[in-house]
Amino acid sequence: MKQGLIHIYSGDGHGKSPAALGKAVMAAAAGERVVIIQFLKGRGLQDTEFIRRLEPEIKIFRFEKSETDFVALSEDKKQEEIVNIKNGLNFAKKVLTTGECDLLILDEVLSVGDAK
To answer: How far apart are CA 39 and CA 57, in angstroms?
Structure first.
């Protein structure tokens, strides 16, 4: 069994997601398979041309459907997105148990607890 390493980027302000993305690029450049799952990001990175050019070495998933930040959603839409967030967490578990990647990044996953 391969031993894992956990990096946690937290705190107020900016820089956490770019730091994780930098780690992803370094891993992909070394030939590793990278999966990024984004949480609570509104539109997120998935729709940018730059990120599409990084595929298939870096695969990015976002299970939320709304392009609006979670905190700005109505209560009904928040409940719908909570179901989508749970699907994202279940997908993360699947990726870990099947060994689909060498590096798994859960972008903004620590904020998921605030979404309840």
So the answer is: 20
- Angle at alpha carbon of residue 90, lines to 63 and 70, rounded to 5°: 35
- Per-residue confidence of the chain (116 residues) as pLDDT tens digits? 566 677 778 888 788 888 898 999 999 999 999 999 988 766 555 556 777 788 889 998 888 888 777 778 889 988 998 999 999 999 999 999 998 899 999 988 887 776 65
27 in Cβ contact with 103 (< 8 Å) = yes
**pTM of the shown model:** 0.83
- Taken in order 68, 74, 78, 80, is the CA torsion positive or negative? negative
